[in-house]
Specification:
With about 325 residues, the chain is mainly α. The chain contains twelve helices and two strands; from the N terminus they run ααααααββαααααα. It is found in: Membrane.
Length: about 325
């Protein structure tokens, strides 16, 4: 329990430094700053693998699945890469939400900060629930596996490309509870006019981001549970991936068109972990295979996006 408290305390310190020190004043986060912070978060997350090794070798953390220190590190890194790769899809949706509500770049970091704080709390609850289910009901792993395969199929068909936040169920429900103003007044989530409190576009974007993250958690939590059911590895890898989501958003959202094949990488990853769950009781794959499949899928998607030109671009060059 002490290790969990220390880890959560460390996360809260990171968040406090982020909002209270490094981003105390609202400013537009440019690519150079986003690249630097993305490198910092990835370095912290990968460096934490050393802490995982130490914790599992010293016995300071509960080890219900009987992992060796080396295997624990491999599972942590694999889980982290899965969460990081699935976060890319989250970036696409966040970009659509900000664009739909015309949220200025100046205030996007503040919305993401509170959105990620809420995501951390919800992910923690979802992880505990998911681990408890797998430990109590062996057959639930097959349900998770089928769900991931279905998600991969939906992503392959591109059924989520027409997402419109202003037509969503969430937006309609918020309008029933609070009056909504189209005016953005600084970083405020609510404004008061003539005695009436109205929600600003920043608050609407925050609510939709929070609830869409719940939907993404339904994919990401089963995906990492296919790698390990150890609660601390699942929680730490998931949370450290989420902490880097803000800087990754400001970096990747500006390059969405360049990485047009990355969705196929996510399809491969989701399909792989789904099949791994379905055959988990028949086939036990070495952890390095999972790590290799995830890494190769991501690299292949990025390389294909950079090397293969779009049809319009090819036609334009030929003419």
């Amino acid at each position: 329990m002490g290790v969990w408290i220390l880890f959560i305390g460390l996360v809260l310190v990171f968040l406090a430094l982020d909002l209270g020190v490094f981003n105390k004043k609202a400013h537009v986060i440019k690519s150079k700053e986003a690249s630097m912070w993305t490198a910092v978060w990835v370095s912290i997350a990968l460096g934490f693998s050393g802490v995982i090794y130490w914790l599992f070798s010293s016995g300071l953390v509960d080890n219900p699945t009987g992992l060796t220190p080396n295997n624990a590190v491999l599972k942590y890194i694999t889980g982290y890469l899965i969460e990081l790769s699935l976060s890319i899809d989250n970036v696409f949706v966040i970009a659509v939400i900000f664009s739909s509500f015309n949220i200025p770049s100046l205030y996007q970091h503040r919305v993401l900060f509170w959105g990620i704080l809420g995501a951390i709390i919800f992910r923690g609850l979802t992880i505990l629930f998911g681990v408890a289910l797998i430990n109590k009901f062996d057959w639930i792993i097959y349900v998770f596996g089928v769900f991931l395969l279905y998600t991969a199929f939906k992503m392959l068909k591109g059924e989520d490309e027409d997402f419109d936040p202003k037509k969503s169920f969430v937006f309609r429900q918020v309008k029933k509870i609070y009056p909504i103003t189209g005016t953005i007044k600084g970083e405020q989530f609510f404004v008061k006019r003539m005695g009436i409190t109205a929600a600003t576009p920043l608050f609407i974007a925050l609510v939709i981001i929070e609830l869409t993250d719940i939907l993404f958690a339904l994919d990401s939590i089963p995906a990492i549970l296919a790698i390990t059911a150890d609660p601390f590895i699942v929680f730490s890898s998931n949370i450290l991936a989420i902490l880097g989501l803000r800087s990754m958003y400001f970096l990747v959202s500006r390059m969405l068109q360049k990485f047009r094949f990355i969705n196929y990488s996510l399809v491969v990853i989701l399909a792989f972990v789904g099949l791994k769950m379905l055959f988990s009781h028949q086939i036990e794959l070495p952890e390095w295979i999972s790590l290799a499949v995830i890494s190769v899928s991501l690299v292949a998607g990025i390389v294909a996006s950079l090397l293969i030109k779009e049809k319009e671009e090819v036609v334009g060059n030929e003419s």
